[in-house]
Amino acid sequence: MKLPLAILLYENLIPGSQLINRLQDLGYRVETINDARLLVELAEREKALVVVADLFSMKTDVCKEIKALKTNPATAHIPVVAFADAKQRDLQKAASANGANLVASNLTIVAHLPQFLDQALQID
């Protein structure tokens, strides 16, 4: 049986490497990317169950790519758990406005990942 796929988008080693380990401990197989422009294609091709995305990027606008994921009929159903530094309130608000199901801070994402995933994966 194939494990459910979590796509992890990050550029910074920490908390990225911690999230890989945590997701694997929770029973996910993890596909990592460091370029948000690959998000929609990968999520559609690999049938991701969830996306965990660091909003900070030197390469691209992650919020724009979250919106692209959520407006694509083939990937719109995929929950997005996004995270950013607590001081980056504008970035966190932009992620929510562009479709992120849940936005957390860097300080809480690893410790509370199981709860965040449960919340994001709830069916309305």
Q: Bin the strand percentage.
A: 15-25%
* Low-pLDDT segments, ≥5 res: none
CATH C-level class is: Alpha Beta
Please tally the β strands and state the result. 5
Largest sheet: 5 strands, parallel
Task: Give a quick precis of the structure.
The chain has 124 residues and is an alpha/beta fold.
Which helices and strands occur, and which strands form pairs?
Elements: E1 5-9, H1 13-25, E2 29-33, H2 39-46, E3 50-54, H3 62-71, E4 80-84, H4 89-97, E5 102-105, H5 106-109, H6 113-121
Parallel strand pairs: 1-2, 1-3, 3-4, 4-5
What structural keywords apply?
alpha/beta; globular; 43% helix; 5 strands; 6 helices; 124 residues
Overall description:
This protein has 124 residues and is α/β, with parallel strands linked by helices. It has one domain (5-121): Rossmann fold. Helices cover 43% and strands 19% of the residues. It is built from 6 helices and 5 strands, in the order βαβαβαβαβαα. It has a 5-stranded parallel sheet with strand order 2-1-3-4-5, with helices on both faces. Strand 1, helix 1 and strand 2 form a beta-alpha-beta unit. The longest helix has 13 residues, at 13-25. The protein is globular and about 40 Å long. The mean pLDDT is 95.
